[in-house]
Fold these 2 entries.
Entry 1:
Amino acid sequence: EGDKIDSALSPLKSFKGFSFEKVLCENAKSKSLFIMGQFEGSDDKAVVLLEKMPFSSERATNYVCQDTNLKETLKNDIYGTYDAYIPVQENAVKATVIYPATEKHITKYTDQERFVVTETADLYKSITLPYLEEKEFSVQWVYNILDKKQESERIVFEDPDPETGFILLPDMKWDRKNINTLYLQAIVHKHGIKSLRDLNGTHLPLLRNILKNGSVAIKEKFDVPRSKLNIFIHYQPSYNHLHVHFMHIKNETYGFAHLLSDVIENIELKEDYYQWKTLTYVIREMDELYKRFKDAGHL
Amino acid sequence: EGDKIDSALSPLKSFKGFSFEKVLCENAKSKSLFIMGQFEGSDDKAVVLLEKMPFSSERATNYVCQDTNLKETLKNDIYGTYDAYIPVQENAVKATVIYPATEKHITKYTDQERFVVTETADLYKSITLPYLEEKEFSVQWVYNILDKKQESERIVFEDPDPETGFILLPDMKWDRKNINTLYLQAIVHKHGIKSLRDLNGTHLPLLRNILKNGSVAIKEKFDVPRSKLNIFIHYQPSYNHLHVHFMHIKNETYGFAHLLSDVIENIELKEDYYQWKTLTYVIREMDELYKRFKDAGHL
C-alpha cells in the first residue's frame, strides 16, 4: 500500500502509460471532461478531470499574436470565425489526477440524474443525520491542513483561535493568478461542525469573524473588496467540516448556496433557525442519500 | 471602403499585424475574452471574441496521451493537479473576428462592472423604494397578459381567483420543446405586489397555491415532477409585478434566487420576514440603482 501511494505521489510528466477506459462525464458548459483509466503496472483506477481554463486579460497580447495560427471556419460580411491555435504554453488545460481512485470518486464524477430534496428538520433527523453518522466520512485531509501538515505554504490568512479561528486558502479550482476567478475557502479550526445544520447562536462569533476577517484578508492580499465577493456556505457541503466559500462575483455560484450574511441574520432572528428550517438541495441518483430518501418514500 | 471590406473578408492566417488595444470583457465562467484592436494599415477597429471550446468525448484518448506534457501545480494525498499542455491541434480556441467593428459592436461586447448590494430594510426604504416609486415602471404588458389581451394562447394553466389566482405560461427563453430546459412563469392576478419585499403573512394562501397548483399543472402538462423543478422568486425581479419561476433543474438558476418554499417558511416564522431581512443581490454599473447606492455612499 505504501509503495502504491508513493508512486501515486510522484509528479507525472505526461499521460504516458495511462490507458483510457471511459468518459465518466462531459460538460459543455463548464468545458470539462472526466475520464477513468489506469496507469501501467497498477490495478488501481485513476480519475482524470480535465477542465479548460479561463483566459487571462493580462496575457491577451499573447493570444492575438502572429504565433496564433488561424483556420477559417465561416465568414459572413464583417464576421469571420476561426479555429485559433494559440501558443501551447498559453493554453494549458487544468488536469486533476486522483490516484488511486475509490468507487466513491468514480461515482462522484460520473454523470447522473438529479433530484430536488426538500429536507425538513424531521427528515434531517431520520434520514440524513443517521446516514452521516453511519458513514463517518473522514476529514483527515482537512485536519492535515489545519495542523499545517499539508498545504501550509498556501495559507493566505490564519486566525488561530480554536473557537472562532479559521484558515483561509485558495480553492483547488482557482489557478491563483486570475483575479476574476478568485476562489478561496475559509476552513474553521473548530472540529465537529458538520454543516449548516449544526450552526446555532453559539457560532455567531465564529461566523461574524469569518465574514469580517476573511473579507479583510482578501482585500489586503488580492485587492478585491467585499462588494465583489460572494461569500457562502453550501448545503449539502462536499465535506463535513464547516467551510465558507469566498468567490469573485464574476464566477457564478451554484444553486443552493447560503450567503454567510443571510446565515448570520437568520440565526440572529432564531437561534435554532438551521435546526428548524427545511433545506432544499439537489442530489444525484448515485448518491447513497438519494437511495435513503427514495426508500423512505420521499422521492 | 470597398477595398477595406474586401481585405476584411480575406481569411486571416494568424493575428500577425493585429495591434492589441484593450480587453472589452472577460468571462471566467464561459471562458471567453473579448478584445478590441486594429489591423495594420487600417483605421477601423476590430473586435476579436475568443472562446475556449468544450472537450469532445470522442477525442478523449488524444487528450490523455504521452504527447500531453504535465506540470505539477499541487499535490495532497491522492490528489494531484497539473497544467496540462495537450497537443495544439486538439486544443483550438474559437475566434470570431468582427472587422470593421462599429461603436455598437464595441458597446455590445464591453463588460459592465457588477457589485454586490447588501440591501438592509432601511436601505430599501431610503433608496430602492423611492427609486421604484419615482420611476413608476409600467407593467401594462403584464396586465395585458392577465386580461387575455396578449399571449392568451400560451396559457398553460389559470386559477382566476383575484386574491390567490395566477396565470402559468412558458417563459420566452423556453423553446417549449426540450423538457430539460423547461421554464415557466406564474404571474399573480393580484396587482400591486412589487417584489419579494412586499410579501407578508396575508400572502401565504397565494404563495402556497402557486407552489402547489403550479407544480400540479406542470406535472399534468409536461410530466415533470416537483423533484425536477426549481421554483423560485428573483430579487431584484426583472419587472415589478409578483411572478414565480418554475425551471427544470437541468437549467441553471441564477444566483440570488429565493426558493418559493423558503419564502413561505420564512413568512410562517416571521410575518414581516421580507420587510425585516437584509437582501443581497448583484447590480451592474449601468443600472440606475447602482448610481443611487453609490451616491448614498453604500458602494
Entry 2:
Amino acid sequence: MNSPIVAVVGGGQLARMMAPAATALGITLRVLVESDEASAADAAHETVVGLPTDPDAIRRLLAAPHPDVVTWEHEHIPSEVFAACEDAGIAARPGAEALRFAQDKIEMRARMDELGLPNPPWHTVETEHEVEQFLAAHGGEAVLKTARGGYDGKGVRVIRAASEAHDWLAAAAKGGPRLLIEAKVDFRRELAVQVARRPGGGSAVWPVVESIQREGVCSEVTAPAPELAADLAERAREIALAVAEALDVTGVLAVELFEVEGALVINELAMRPHNSGHWTIDGSVTSQFEQHLRAVLDLPLGDTVAMSPWTVMANVLGGARGDLASALADVSDPGAKIHLYGKRVRPGRKVGHVTTTGPDRTETYRRAVDAAAIVRDGGAA
Amino acid sequence: MNSPIVAVVGGGQLARMMAPAATALGITLRVLVESDEASAADAAHETVVGLPTDPDAIRRLLAAPHPDVVTWEHEHIPSEVFAACEDAGIAARPGAEALRFAQDKIEMRARMDELGLPNPPWHTVETEHEVEQFLAAHGGEAVLKTARGGYDGKGVRVIRAASEAHDWLAAAAKGGPRLLIEAKVDFRRELAVQVARRPGGGSAVWPVVESIQREGVCSEVTAPAPELAADLAERAREIALAVAEALDVTGVLAVELFEVEGALVINELAMRPHNSGHWTIDGSVTSQFEQHLRAVLDLPLGDTVAMSPWTVMANVLGGARGDLASALADVSDPGAKIHLYGKRVRPGRKVGHVTTTGPDRTETYRRAVDAAAIVRDGGAA
C-alpha cells in the first residue's frame, strides 16, 4: 500500500511514541532525529539525522517520496523550516501562525487576553524597576519567565526581589529571550486538558486530568481529575476548544490550567502530544499520539473516552537504576503498563513512564507510583 | 539503555504487530524478513533480509549485538535454525521440541491422545483404502489434512469419497507431506483460547473467544465467547494450560477448539500470536504481542483481563479497495481501531483488521463488521 508519510521534526520520546500508532494505521513515520541515539531513532520507520536548523537535513526530511504533512514534537522550530515546507508545497501542522503562541509566552498571554480567556495578572518586563513594581503590586512574590526556550521548569523562576531577575534582564537586554512576569497563582491544583483539531473541521476533547508537578516537572497525572466540579470541567473543555479554534491549531493541543477557588487560569500551551496526555495510550480508546497523526493528516478523529474509571500515569525520571532494561523483570504488577524511552539515564531526566488503570483511585495511584519507583530505583518486585 | 534484543523469524503481520509492544517496553525487535516489502520491514527496529532456509541470513540475525532470544511468527522453521541458535548459545522460544507439535498435525494429534485431551476421531492415511474405511466408519464425510505446511484453510479438504484424496496421497507417497484424516466434527461453533507461558514458570490465560470462519479463514472474533457455559470456559482454559505445560511451550499458545454438545474438541494449535488474539491489542490490558515478548524474555506476564464488556475483531481481507491507505479517511466510527499491515491487496489476503469495544454485543459486532467492510471495499463513511 502507498502509506501516508508523516514527517516529524524532533526525535525525543514524543516522536518515539507516535511510531506505534503510525504502525497500526499503516502510516510511515519519518523523523528528524538529532542523532542515532535519539529516543525516536530505533522506533521511527525512517530517520533523517540532523538538526532543524540544518537546511540540508530539512531538505532530506521533505525529499521524495514526499511526506503528506510535517509536524513537530517540540516548539523550537525555526521559521526557515516553515518556509521550506511552503516551498515544497507540503502542509506544516500546526502552522507557523498557530505555533508562535506555543513558542512565545508573551504572544500567548497577549492573545489569551484578547480572547477574554483567563490569564493570571502578567506584564512584560525589561528593567528591575518594572519587576519591583510588579512584585509590590502582587504580594511580593511572582513568577518570572523567559518568553521562549523554556520547558520542564527551565526558563521559569519564582522571585521575591528584583535582584533575582538581574541575570535574565541583562541577557534580555543583550538580545536574549524577552521576559514576562506573572502573579504567582495561589492554586488548589493543576489541571490539564487536551483537544485535537483537524484542518477540515472537527475537534475531540479528552477528559480533564489532574497533574502533579514536582520541582517544575510533571510527576503524576490522574484521569479524570478527581472530584472536579462539573462546571469547571466543562469550562476547561470550553477553554481548550476556544484556544484551538481561535489560534487555528491543527493536531493535538494541551492546555495546562490552574484551578483556583471555583475558577480556572491558563498556565501554558503546547501544540503537540504532551506529558499530561500519556495516560491516553493505555487509558483512552484513542491515544494522543494516534489522534495527533489523525489530526495532522485531516483524518476522522478517534474516540477520546476513558476505558477505565481511573487511569494514573507516573513519570520515571532518572534515578538510582543506571540501565532501565533491567526494570522489566522487577515490576511484578501485571497491570502496570511500562513505557521506556530508550534514553540514557541522567538524574532527573524523563526516561519513561508507567500507567495503571482500575476502579479505585487511591489503589490505582499507589500502583502507578510504586511501579515507577521500582523502574527508577530498583527494589522489591 | 542496553535494550533487550528479540529476534523474530518471519516478517508478516504478526512480527509487525510485535513492534509497537517492543517500542513501548524499550525492546529492540530484529526481524528476519523475506524482502524489504514484507509487512514487518518498516515497523521493525532492525531488519535482516533473507529466508529461514538461508544459513547466512540466520547468521546475520544472530550476529552481535546478539539477541537475547529468538522466536517465530510462523511454524515453518527448519531444524538448522534451532541448531544455529544452540551453537550461538541463544535461547530459541518456543523450542524445537515444543514447536514440532505446531508444525506437524500428526504429532499433535498423537500427543493430545497421550495426554487424554479431546481429539476428534482421527487416523493417519496412506492409501485410498484407508480413507474409504475411515469415511465408512464416520458417516461418509471427513476432513483430510496434510500434516505439515497448512494455514488459513490450505492443506485442509473436506471429502466424501476416497478418490478426492488421490492427488494428496500420491504426493505423500512421493515424499510430500504425510496425511491424516479426521471425523468432521458437528460443532456448534468454534472457540479459541490463548495462554502465555514463561520458561521461569508462570502462565496467563486470556478470556475464551468465539471465532467465526468463512471459507476456512478467520473472519470475526468476539471476546468473550457469548453465552459460553462457565464449565466449558473453565475446561477450555484447563486445556490450554495443560497443553502449554505438557509441551513445554514458551511464549503465546493459541488453542483452537470446537464446541460440541456440552464438550470441547481440539482443532489446531499455534505457538505464536494468533489471529484469534488480535482483539487483545485494543481489548485487553496486555496484548498478545506484548505478552509474547514478555514470555520469551522470561519477564513477568501482564494482566489478561478484558478492558470492556465486549470486544469484536473483524479481519480485513483483500477486496474492492486497491490501496488501503485511502480507507483511513472513510471510516467515521470514532471507536473503530484500524490496523493495516502495509501489504499489497490481493483478493482474500489478510491485509488488516478492525477492533471495536462496547457494552452491547450486537452493536459492537455490527460496528466492527461495518468498519472492516468499509476498509475492504470502500463505501459510505
